[in-house]
């Protein structure tokens, strides 16, 4: 679905569910193990793969962590990590290209969500490799299976460690939580961790990358922000609409025939919502929906989803971007792409929407020291 109002209606329709058991092709055994998107649907039970009472039981304890008050309490940590990363970047010699995605956009949200769930800092680079592989929808079937098994094992070990020795982290808190009187099973814990750590960093990584790219490609818009005529909040919201961090999200499955205008979604059919297309829907955002405009009169967008499965980490992602972007451009006012915009390469994924890398120059190359005038020989 690519239209805002239709998508919003369907995202609220209880006849479209996340339980893969309602997918006709899955029930009939027509989805082969080699299907490239299997890693996006064949997942342990979590808040993104369940509905109704089960979904509520798994989602509610996590959602309490991302209330406005709890997110604001995380701001000092977000600022601390941001400025530490910028201090490291300040050591890069002028004129030296760096990958801003790897050096800034990734370690910031990964550091925050890793701290929350008790994932050791030294494991973050490995998790980045695994999630890059998971979201790579051009990966071969062997890689998909290996990635899933490695992720399951990683979080299984983390759950076992936290059960044996609880810490001051959300993983330990969820293990001790009895949602509606029923504790999380190990399988539910693994599914929850895989989902929350993925969503808790990937969305913000893409939001920061996409915002930096958009601002550098539209210097007039960046000038408005720097002059204080437009807020960084407006930049974040326009980026979310114009270049959403997620292209498409997990399928939903029809439990009965659903009429959508002149189309009927048949019972057992799968539906994919195209968040990237929805943000450019001219019928909702106006005839200039394809234009990046931070002065645009804001209209509600669906880039974090809608309805019962609306992303619970949306407030955290927004806050991280609102901290990171102004700090980055204040520290490096001459920030520029190291290559032409046309040379940037997208992430090979139909799920996440970002770039593989974001090569930038933090500062222009240092000017050469003037050569001292040599005295002319006499005679």
UniProtKB/TrEMBL annotation:
<comment type="similarity">
    <text>Belongs to the cytochrome P450 family.</text>
</comment>
<dbReference type="GO" id="GO:0016705">
    <property type="term" value="F:oxidoreductase activity, acting on paired donors, with incorporation or reduction of molecular oxygen"/>
</dbReference>
<keyword id="KW-0560">Oxidoreductase</keyword>
<keyword id="KW-0408">Iron</keyword>
<dbReference type="GO" id="GO:0005506">
    <property type="term" value="F:iron ion binding"/>
</dbReference>
<dbReference type="InterPro" id="IPR036396">
    <property type="entry name" value="Cyt_P450_sf"/>
</dbReference>
<dbReference type="GO" id="GO:0004497">
    <property type="term" value="F:monooxygenase activity"/>
</dbReference>
<dbReference type="InterPro" id="IPR002397">
    <property type="entry name" value="Cyt_P450_B"/>
</dbReference>
<protein>
    <submittedName>
        <fullName>Cytochrome P450</fullName>
    </submittedName>
</protein>
<dbReference type="InterPro" id="IPR001128">
    <property type="entry name" value="Cyt_P450"/>
</dbReference>
<dbReference type="InterPro" id="IPR017972">
    <property type="entry name" value="Cyt_P450_CS"/>
</dbReference>
<dbReference type="GO" id="GO:0020037">
    <property type="term" value="F:heme binding"/>
</dbReference>
<keyword id="KW-0479">Metal-binding</keyword>
<keyword id="KW-0349">Heme</keyword>
<dbReference type="Pfam" id="PF00067">
    <property type="entry name" value="p450"/>
</dbReference>
<keyword id="KW-0503">Monooxygenase</keyword>
